[in-house]
Amino acid sequence: MESSPADVVVIGAGIVGLATAYRLLQDRPGISLVVLEKEDGPAHHQTGHNSGVLHSGIYYKPGSYKARNCREGKEMMEAFCREQEIPFETCGKVIVAIEEAELPLLDNIFQRGQENGVDCAMISKEELAEIEPHAAGIKAIKVPEAGIVDYKEVCRRLAEKVTSAGQKIVYGAKVRALVEAGSEVVVQSTAGDFRSKAVVNCAGLHNDRVTAMSGAKPPARIVPFRGEYYELTPQAKHLCKHLIYPVPDPNFPFLGVHFTRMIDGSVECGPNAVLALAREGYTWGDINLKDLGGTLTYGGFWKMIAKHWRTGFGEMHRSLSKAAFTKALSRLMPEIRSEHLVKAPAGVRAQALMPDGLAIDDFLFQENGQVLNVCNAPSPAATSSLSIAKAIVERLAPTLDR
Q1: How far apart are the first and last CA of the chain?
Q2: What does CATH list as the number for 6-47+152-219+361-400?
């Protein structure tokens, strides 16, 4: 049965989809919209398994979409949290160089931070010890403005804003097809058909499949990587006071294992990065043959493996061995022992891979007629979500103004 038409259908009730719906209601009073989500509530996947960091933008290439939107998005997110009385904390972080070989990379990150307008300072080993007395390091970057928040709570509040404005969020609505119907697009889903002037694909882990439904060729394939975490026991939480990060490997699209103090007072350690056997594969036992087959038959995946197989084996070893995971963490914090760690929920990252094996590092959009596809929204997408939503709404203007 076909529903009443809406001006916009947003696919996906993660933080980018809900932020987009919220921004549409702000910028275009009187607009009608529907958010479709295949799960039974918001933020079930990437957003709901997020580390909760309010990123500063220090890592990103100056002038990149990520750098610009992270800075603006952080300010917007903090303002939204203050307005909605959502707890957040500007706790600060340190990025730590453990050995001399990492110092040029640390200097490069510091330079990027300065160019991006981040409040940061290079500090000595002695100054690091004052901030994080249990962290190893010969030099570090102090980033006072980094923070923490519960993005699931942000999503709940965004969803309330959408529904209280009289708009619909339809759960249990898995999208099956997108069909052009004159000046409209019909979104066929398990919860019925929805007609609209414009569609925004914020499907996250499945965005490439929805992009293909729109009639466009996805610019990249989503390959899922699981990030596994441990949590510090209550007796060991005192070892981490803020956020402690290593100097990341510039050739690998992940930040490496780190310590993250959460808004509830707990401390998470991780993640590693291993191939997930399903797009929603949060454990080794979660296997989806369609998803796995799509990964293993994709040339871009094997080209990536050819470049990073040594790192990949190390990540898998840490997944299968708590001792190996503990050893990786002890590089940053020598006092860490296996008994300090208990398993925490994992997350899955939607890594967009090009056919040549290149991991897309920046936000990526693709427009196909009346459908706007968010083809890549990696970290810091949660921090940047309100800014990304602003850009999406601006891109929709020509379609909505017809």
Answers
A1: 27
A2: 3.50.50.60
In which element (H, E) is residue 6 found?
strand 6-11
Q: Where in the chain do CATH 3.30.9 domains reside?
A: 224-357
- pLDDT value at position 401? 87
The structure tokens listed for 295 are 């990964």
Give the residue range(s) of CATH 3.50.50.60 domains in the chain.
6-47+152-219+361-400
Bridge partner list, 192:
189
Q: Is the pTM of this model over 0.85?
A: yes
Binned at pLDDT 50, 70 and 90, residue 1 comes out as very low
Tell me what the pLDDT averaged over the chain comes to.
94
Asked whether 175 and 186 are in contact (CB, 8 A), the reply is no
User: Which structure tokens are listed for 110?
Assistant: 């510091």
Fold of the domain spanning 224-357: D-Amino Acid Oxidase; Chain A, domain 2 (3.30.9)
- CA 67 from chain center: how many Å? 14
Question: Diameter of the chain by CA atoms?
Answer: 68
- pLDDT tens, residue by residue, 273-321: 999 999 999 999 999 999 999 999 999 999 999 988 888 888 999 999 9
